[in-house]
């Protein structure tokens, strides 16, 4: 029987990530959240901001950013009796697989929307991923210090485009230059905004009750009247907060504020720590694993090069699913069947990497990895389990990669296989020739690969165009038919970095024909690790 302290430790954890479109304010809100978590003395000190501001080919910048994002990729801090783990999602303009996999390691998400713009592209894409696991979503409408769109219309857009009911928890009083604050519907009080205080935690003046005449004198009669009218409408037309619907991903509580002005962020954090789920169960091929089980288990969702020049190894990020990690404990690496004694895992308290003494279900720890650990690997205390749902996405862009110095072929292959292990790109080796094909989901990844090959593997490589439109992982339950397919389609087959068979199609038409011709073969767009 688990003891109460152990249960408390787990139940107070809240592990979430931010999803947003570039420029909506993710970096800014992260800063303010850390300010509230006492993890930063003063906002404005989170490095690595403006991730899309560097020139695409500027490797040093990328390197710097990546280095920084190792230390800020998980931030743990206490808030309101909860222990919050905020997982950063890479901020490249590109669609990134890392982002997607990070979303498999959280229990809830904060969706930040630029209220002047509404629901944007990237948010839409990321929401599709959170849908796969019905992740609960908290919404923050940002940039109220600017002129925004009609708040009612914003809620409508979330409801229709993202197919999720909205429950406003706060409501804006004016916006832009006339932004006066919000009315907190649940607390039945207005909280007044003061501009120019974004670097600090403010004790906002509050006014109890919507009909309080103090409200009229504080924000002006006109705005107060408008607020009353709007709220009557909003409360009638929108959804009441329902925690069950929130937990099943069908309803999102909505907060309004300005991250830059550090206003409303605390209301959102209060809601998130109160309502977001404690560490959730995770599926394995055998059974569901519950967070409060005595035995430790976890899975690796990301591998990143360690930018500390003294340690040229890589860090495997593991989400602890159940139990507790303590220093020196033995873990079973399920895929290899080997027992590993882990004495030097890192935790990410307040953005600084430090040695983990203890960590619990819901936490992320970093394992030093010398190439033995892969994305998707499960670790347990002995039980043979395999966590499911950590996807690899079929790339959409392909190039042939070639060496300037042909003698370094082995180094090139090693580099590519390691980079594909990290999930940065995918590498394909056709069965019929010696080409090396790099597949990526976003175009920036190609530059990163060449730059990293040079910096880390000392090989200079260049790309050539290649006639590949798409790739699909193939398998079949019908051994005989699969053998026939492999014989007949050999010129289209390749092995990926993990030696999985893939079908490389020069055109989509070709892929569709192959699907028709081989109905017993599954052509998969995602592959689970
Ligand atoms: P991102 O990580 O989602 O890409 O967004 P980031 O926080 O970097 O914010 C993008 C821009 O929007 C930044 O301006 C930031 O200062 C601004 N911003 C964020 N929140 C607010 C807000 O509540 N109100 C207003 N008015 N602006 C906000 P920038 O000019 O690109 O960068 P910087 O020069 O301020 O660093």
Which characteristics define this entry?
GTP-binding, nucleotide-binding, alpha+beta, 529 residues, binds guanosine-5',3'-tetraphosphate, P-loop_NTPase
Strand percentage lies at 25-35%
Radius of gyration from CA coordinates: 25 Å
Strand line-up of the largest beta sheet? 28-25-27-26-30-31-29-32
The number of distinct helices, counting runs of at least 4 residues, comes to 14
What is the approximate shape? globular
Helical content (DSSP H or I, runs of 4+): 25-40%
Structural class, from secondary structure content?
alpha+beta
Describe the main β-sheet briefly.
8 strands, antiparallel
Low-confidence stretches: 42-64, 66-71
- Give the overall average pLDDT: 87
**Span of the ends, CA to CA:** 33 Å
